[in-house]
Amino acid sequence: MTGTRREKEMRKALRTLIPRAPMADAEPILDLALAGHLRHLPPSIALWQATTAHVRHTHTEYDALLAEGYDQDSSRFFVLDAMNDLLQSWGCGRQVPTEDPDTDQVSRTRLRKPAEAIQQQLCPCFRITKIPP
User: Fold this and answer.
1) Domain ranges in the chain?
2) Cα separation of 31 and 42, whole Å?
3) CB 3 within 8 A of CB 14
4) Phi, psi of 120 (to 5 degrees)
5) Model-wide pTM > 0.90
6) Per-residue pLDDT tens for 86-132?
7) Could you give the maximum distance between any two Cα atoms of the chain, in Å?
8) Helices 5-17, 23-33: crossing angle, 10 deg rounding
9) What would the DSSP string read from start to end of the chain?
10) pLDDT tens digits for 18-48?
11) Rounded to whole angstroms, what are the CA distances from 118 to 15, 54, 121, 124, 130?
12) How buried is 56 (Cβ within 10 angstroms: 0-12 exposed, 13-18 middle, 19+ buried)?
């Protein structure tokens, strides 16, 4: 087997994570996991993100739901069971959770609430006050 040390680690992690995945899916997943933007992540995390992205876009109606006008969160919700069923059929011991651990409550709040609400959520005793002129 040729390749970098990271590629060898990824191949080993891939066989552990999804041992029964078809080669037609394993190779694109490996390519995604080795992409430059995931280089800073440990192999197991990069591989999990690549696996879920591949399954979501290749084996579900996710893209069609987005095209129909559903938002990202709703589309992910609707394809969750199909993703987990496929991962289970590939021998994966993990499942995609209903709440994505990559986007915790605070980060979602940052997108929808002003800074004061975020600070109060992080530390209720902290209040933003205006500095007098």
Assistant:
1) 5-100, 103-133
2) 15
3) no
4) -65, -35
5) no
6) 999 999 988 998 865 554 443 343 333 344 444 444 444 444 444 55
7) 68
8) 130
9) --S-HHHHHHHHHHHHH-TT--HHHHHHHHHHHTSGGGTTS-HHHHHHHHHHHHHHHHSSSHHHHHHTT--HHHHHHHHHHHHHHHHHHTT-S----SS-TTS-HHHHHHHHS-HHHHHHHH-TT----PPP-
10) 999 999 999 999 999 988 888 888 888 999 9
11) 41, 33, 5, 9, 16
12) buried
Instruction: Quote the tokens at residue 59.
Output: 């084996």
Residue 108 carries which side chain, given as an amino acid letter?
R
Q: Which residue has the tokens 């680690």?
A: 9
Tokens (6 digits) for 40: 């800073």
